[in-house]
Design goal:
The protein is α+β, with helices and mostly antiparallel strands. The protein is about 35% helix and about 10% strand. It has a domain at about 60-85 and about 95-155 and about 225-265. It contains seven helices and ten strands. The strands form five sheets. A two-stranded parallel sheet has the order 1-10. Strands 2-9 form a two-stranded antiparallel sheet.
């Protein structure tokens, strides 16, 4: 610090003026980074450093709604190498020359290299990882695809085996089945029938029949409903795993799709 240039007489006059109230003492300014911080108020909300919960997420959801939220809303996907990703593994690097060559092979195509959107929510990634680990690969893909579409397997509502013509003929009278010669059926068919025409000659007439098929068959209906039951069983397994998992923003209820919805129609 420099030498004090105020004389004792001047300092005594300053102190006397301060004591008489003629001069107001100014407190030294403290830099903002050295000022003591006031404590934050305690609330029921999450700390500011943590990621806020997504909007429009209820506190409880059934497993089907949770899967649709993760795969349809948050656009979660499966990680094909979860062990490598969690172990800090790195992908094989690609040089700029390789990228230029691959773009040249595509022709006059501009490649969109922008990120596009934010990462899925943390709970959505947990749900995708649980589906991938709990179910076989084919079942996990089925559950994820149906969740992205917001659908369930088609269990063929109101389906029943029906006898329909193989081919249709459309005319003035409407649609009818195309007929064929029954003689082509062989031993199970009918031979040509002989008759005498107006001129007295003997002619052979074809015996016509309509080839038919059964659609849908009982086997097809049973397969579709068996697929629905397998899908519901997958949701049951995923529900148990999600209820044991530590999800941050919501919990999974016990609600499941109906066991056999076609029984209600009988």
């Amino acid at each position: 610090m420099g030498q004090d240039r105020i004389t004792p007489e001047e300092r005594a006059a300053i102190e006397q003026a301060i004591a008489e109230g003629q001069v107001q003492r100014v407190e030294p300014r403290v830099p903002s980074n050295l000022r003591p911080r006031r404590p934050l108020p305690v609330t029921g909300r999450e700390p500011a450093g943590r990621t806020p919960a997504p909007r429009s997420v209820p506190a409880e959801m059934p497993v089907k709604a949770a899967l649709e939220w993760a795969f349809q809303t948050e656009k979660a996907s499966f990680d094909f190498d979860e062990l490598g990703a969690s172990a800090g593994g790195q992908r094989k690097g690609i040089s700029m020359e390789q990228l230029i060559f691959e773009r040249h092979m595509l022709g006059k195509v501009a490649i969109d290299t922008s990120p596009g959107r934010s990462e899925p929510a943390e709970d959505a990634e947990i749900i995708a990882s649980i589906v991938r680990s709990v179910l076989p690969w084919s079942a996990a893909c089925l559950v994820a695809d149906l969740a992205r579409a917001g659908r369930e397997p088609d269990w063929m509502r109101d389906a029943a085996p029906r006898i329909l013509p193989i081919e249709w003929v459309y005319g003035r009278g409407g649609a009818r089945g195309r007929t064929a010669d029954a003689a082509r059926l062989g031993a199970g068919g009918w031979p040509h029938q002989k008759r005498r025409n107006r001129k007295g000659a003997i002619v052979e007439d074809e015996v016509l029949f309509t080839p038919v098929t059964v659609s849908p068959t009982a086997v097809q209906i049973a397969a579709a409903r068996r697929m629905y039951l397998e899908w519901r069983g997958c949701l049951l397994a995923v529900r148990g795993a999600l209820q044991r998992a530590s999800l941050r923003w919501f919990s999974v209820t016990d609600e499941l799709p109906p066991m056999m919805p076609w029984k209600r129609l009988d």
